[in-house]
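> @MW can you paste both from yesterday?
MW: sure, first one:
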Amino acid sequence: MGQAISVSTILYQLPVAYMTRIISYFISFLLCMQLLQTDATAARIKDLAQIHGVRNNQLLGYGLVTGLNGTGDDMKKSVFTLQAIYNMMTRHGITIDPNTIKDIKIKNVAAVMVVATLPPFAETGSTIDIQVSSMGDSKSLAGGTLLMTPLSGPDGNVYAVAQGALSIGAFSYGGKTAQVQKNHPTVGRISGGAIVENTVPIDLAAEGKLEFQLRDADFTTANNMAKVINKKFGPNTAFPDSSGTVQVTIPQPYLENVVDFIATLEVLPVRVDSPARVIVNERTGTIVMGKDVRLSTVAVSHGNLSLIIRDDYNVSQPNPFADGQTVVTPETTVAVTEEEGQLVLIDMDKGVSIGEIANALNAIGATPRDLIAIFQAIKASGSLYGELIIL
């Protein structure tokens, strides 16, 4: 018998490059094992829910874009643009006879709608991005400058004022017979183009409580979320009062530092549960199935039927110097092809993964559009345990 050699002796005799590779493989194996043991359905609270009242607010305004190179609104057709120009010039002390306003010809101005989103906790003086889109028949907003435009909320109050040079990222050039266009030249953006003038008050911790709203309401997820919070901060801290909301009482040590409490709370992992659903889109042939979709034992038979109707035209022409006329005689050919149907038994009494469902249906050669019809039939038979949603 030969002398026994220890593993350490073998590793010591290997070159450094091989030792480094072995160590890296071993570390990768340990990381993979750790990932396999981690709950794949866990998500942070901040990704599942939001605090009630902490939300965006939409703003809207009407303005004028000037400096266009002859691509503005047609003043004969876009009367509102001409009226806006008249009002603007009047406010700046320029007197115009109302009877001659129709004679004004301006090609470098376009009426636009300005939209923006006011984020929560936006302070006075901060800037937000805006989007500008043409209202009239302007051909392009390239090179234009948005004049001062108040942005109002649904309550009619002005929360921001927008102004600045537009960034289009598109062009449109052409004449009477040809035109070249790239992207959409009648919509543009201004990064930081609006200054916040008023803020929306938010009572973050009214009466020492927070209300979390789940983005996807689910009783199990809400219950799991409350359990995780209570385990971290003590019993009776969180209570799920519905499938979409979880009430959280701020603990006494965090009453003076609510931000620290929210920052600690929103990174807690929660096991997410969702209903079993099959989403099908008949327009695109797209099928999406959740991981919890299950089928009972069902037999599926599939066979494609092809019906081809073709018309051929033959020409009947008489011999030379013979009496008669050239006649076109149609000939119709009808071909019916039916592929051999296969009856496949899908035995799923014990429940299987979504991959096994896909393999079982692919075994009968079903295309995505065929699968839509198959899923509808399986749902009608009562063998699909889940919700079938058709878009």
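MW: second:
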Amino acid sequence: MTTYAHTYGDEGPTLTPNAFGLVYENAISENVPGQVNLHRVTYTVEGIEVVANVYTPRFFADAQNDRRYPAVVVAHPNGGSKDQVAGLYAQKLAEAGFVTIAFDARYQGESGGMPRRTDKPAVRMGDIMGAIDYLQNYPGVDPERIGAFGICGGGGYTFATAQVDKRIKAVGTLSLFNTGEVRRNGYMRTQMDSKFERQREAALARRKEAAGAEPELAGFMNWTPEEARQIKVDLYRDGYFYYGVTHKSPNAPGTYLKSSLMDMMAWDATDHADLITQPLLIIAGEIADSRYMSEEAFEKATGTADKELFIVPGATHIRTYFVPEYVEQITARIRQFFAEKL
């Protein structure tokens, strides 16, 4: 059931947010008894309000009071929101019988926090822990069967959170993006010679903020579609169209505070990868130029023997977010993984 007005171009569907604000194909647009339902919820993490969507499986409302469901926390990419790919896979997992939650990171989307567009690793990891706090107390959820699934930057933050939060019983990532490594060394390690200069720029941005200036933003550039098509790096080329055209959402501007680089550049998702003892599933596109980050995280996760690197044939990074043939493969694998491990 496709619930969006959409047109198709070279980059895929152009979607209009539905009644729930969701921007992905076949998103639910109304709650129907006996089907997956969406519940908009709010809760606080460290005093800041978080806005999230909880997806409940079919017949959840009619379940016996003593029945408990497994649950999965889904973390969105850097610059993204709960309404895009995080919502897509949260819904797909709910269709398989899991209670899921997709949330907007604090300082972003519909969640609270100032200054807006702050994107710091400690905050993002705290968001995942806060979602677990909420979900473990959600009626019908079994707190002993909670998993976590993160996409892109959310994948890196989920990978890091699983190192310290053992309430996560199984962890999966899709198109993992190690934010610290990239902000420090550049994407595909193309800026290793300029890291100290970029640190100075981030410190200067914070100095200006502290003096009352408007925060300086970093992130997507103001390319034209023609310019974007010429970009050789698939993450940025496809990302331009996904975030700026086909799956555009007012909750996902694709930018972050330059001052956040101070925190990002001193952090790495894999620093303590050996602390992951849970079952681990890492998914990456076969031809994604970000694949190296998934492979490195997989190799460094020496604390678990129960791990798998699942490669999606023919897929780039962003196309794992929406291309039906890739989404179908990924959905089948994550449903099986969480069903077996939770």
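> thanks! The chain has ten helices and twelve strands.
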